């Protein structure tokens, strides 16, 4: 493998790939659902398929299952690709390479939050609302807004990736070859090591040095947990 070629860790490629596939499928079926049952602001000549909401919910559930693992990886091993403590200061250096890299990290972080918002708002909805013509619920509007934000973030994510790394960086996420330190043979031991870091004492130690980055991680993970738990009480 050429060392001057962009390289993405294997686990990142797998998690990013599965999350991306489930997300895009959820987004496509989300619009089809809106077009079938609503279509007040923009309607395309799509066939009306009454089962599309169930299909959208299935892809949304797949995304919700995969996303927590991806989010943990992103905040832990992929944190260099997210907003840094000095990113806001570097965003003042308009037009310079560091400005683009900082903007790329900011967009990556916003994309994680947009997906969290979409998944949480979707879980707050009732599957009977749209088929019964109940279109004025708060969580339905929130879910519509979340997918609009998600679409914008996804486009910006692709544009920023192309800007900072060009086509080679875009294509690097699709490559299968991996370095020795990324071998799946090492994943079990790495998972055990990560599990040891979850001991209560170490968690308290981690919380003692709270910063904005850690707060962002906590907010995303708590929202994911809430997306699973809160609907159980309806």
Summed up, what is this model?
The protein is mostly helical. The protein has one domain. The protein is built from 8 helices and no strands.
Keyphrases for this structure?
single chain, 234 residues, mainly alpha, 0% strand
Task: Compile the SSE list and pairings.
Elements (H helix, E strand, L loop, with lengths): L9 H28 L14 H25 L10 H4 L6 H27 L14 H35 L14 H10 L3 H9 L3 H18 L5
Helix pairs in contact: 1-2, 2-8, 4-5, 4-8
Structure description:
Its main location: membrane. It holds the Pfam family Ni_hydr_CYTB. With 234 residues, the chain is mainly α. The chain has one domain. 67% of the residues lie in helices and 0% in strands. The chain is built from 8 helices and no strands. The longest helix is centred in the middle third of the chain and has 35 residues, at 138-172. The chain is globular and about 50 Å long.
């Amino acid at each position: 493998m050429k060392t001057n070629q962009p390289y993405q860790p294997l686990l990142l490629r797998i998690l990013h790939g599965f999350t991306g596939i489930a997300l895009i499928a959820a987004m496509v079926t989300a619009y089809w659902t809106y077009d079938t049952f609503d279509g007040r602001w923009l309607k395309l000549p799509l066939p009306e398929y009454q089962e599309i909401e169930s299909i959208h919910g299935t892809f949304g559930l797949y995304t919700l299952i995969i996303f927590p693992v991806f989010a943990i990886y992103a905040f832990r091993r992929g944190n260099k690709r997210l907003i840094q403590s000095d990113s806001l200061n570097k965003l003042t250096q308009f037009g310079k390479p560091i400005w683009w890299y900082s903007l790329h990290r900011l967009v990556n972080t916003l994309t994680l939050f947009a997906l969290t918002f979409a998944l949480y708002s979707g879980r707050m909805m009732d599957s009977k609302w749209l088929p019964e013509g109940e279109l004025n619920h708060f969580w339905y509007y929130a879910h519509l807004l979340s997918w609009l934000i998600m679409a914008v973030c996804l486009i910006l994510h692709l544009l920023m990736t192309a800007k900072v790394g060009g086509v080679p960086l875009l294509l690097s996420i699709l490559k299968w070859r991996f370095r020795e330190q990324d071998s799946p043979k090492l994943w079990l031991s790495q998972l055990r090591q990560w599990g040891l870091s979850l001991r209560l004492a170490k968690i308290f130690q981690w919380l003692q040095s709270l910063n904005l980055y850690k707060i962002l991680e906590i907010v995303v993970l708590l929202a994911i947990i809430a997306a699973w738990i809160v609907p159980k009480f309806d």
